[in-house]
Amino acid sequence: MGTALLAVAAVAAVGIVVARLVSAGRHEAQAEQARLAEEARRRARWSLDAVWAMDDRQFEEYVADLCRRDGCTDVKRVGGAGDLGADVTGLLPDGRRLVIQCKRYAKHRTVGSRDIQTFNGTARAEHGADIPVFVASCVFTKPARDFAARHRLVLVDVDLLGFWNSGTALTSFLDLDIGRSGTNRKLRPDHE
């Protein structure tokens, strides 16, 4: 009987040690995943230095080129005076009409709700967008993201733009929950 109790105690002790090791390993894996995700965001932003150096027209061409790379067809840069909020238009690979508004702002700026509301008023009604997309080289304010979520607008902020620039397909961003994703914290300017 004493040997049986000793064996049960030994098995229990081994079980506790194994459970703690598994838990510690799980926590380490989660911490490593978070670190890798943050590193990917940081690398994506670093690769955007050329974007912040572009003028507005170059930024629109850059976005149009990303659309073409991702299999969009009939892609046109249409931005300019009187564009009514459409800088790039085209068709997604599945045939849906894409209308994109581009804002190439300094990284420490934000795009507010007013810009999003204006785009919402023209993207579908004036341009026949199935998928209205607002691409910015900075972040969107929380009210802008909330408005976009309510009106089914796709927002591509500086983080998503970095991933798009690095090869992630535009279609990967179309179903993101705008109200729950991203950040509205401004980036620091290069020169303070």
SSE inventory with pairings:
Elements: H1 2-46, H2 49-53, H3 56-69, E1 73-77, E2 88-91, E3 97-103, E4 110-111, H4 113-123, E5 131-136, E6 139-140, H5 142-150, E7 154-156, H6 158-165
Parallel strand pairs: 3-5, 4-6, 5-7
Antiparallel strand pairs: 1-2, 2-3
Notable traits:
6 helices; two-stranded parallel ribbon; 192 residues; alpha/beta
Question: Summed up, what is this model?
Answer:
48% of the residues lie in helices and 15% in strands. It has helices at residues 2-46, 49-53, 56-69, 113-123, 142-150, 158-165; strands spanning 73-77, 88-91, 97-103, 110-111, 131-136, 139-140, 154-156.
Instruction: Name the shape in a single word.
Output: elongated
Helix content: 40-55%
Question: Main β-sheet: number of strands, strand sense, barrel status?
Answer: 5 strands, mixed
SS element count, helices:
6
Task: Point out poorly predicted stretches.
Answer: none
Structural class comes to alpha/beta
- Along the chain, the helix and strand elements come as HHHEEEEHEEHEH
- How do the strands of the widest beta sheet line up side by side? 1-2-3-5-7
Distance between the termini: 76 Å
Strand percentage: 15-25%
- Cα-atom radius of gyration: 23 Å
Overall residue-averaged pLDDT value? 83
> How many beta-strand segments?
7
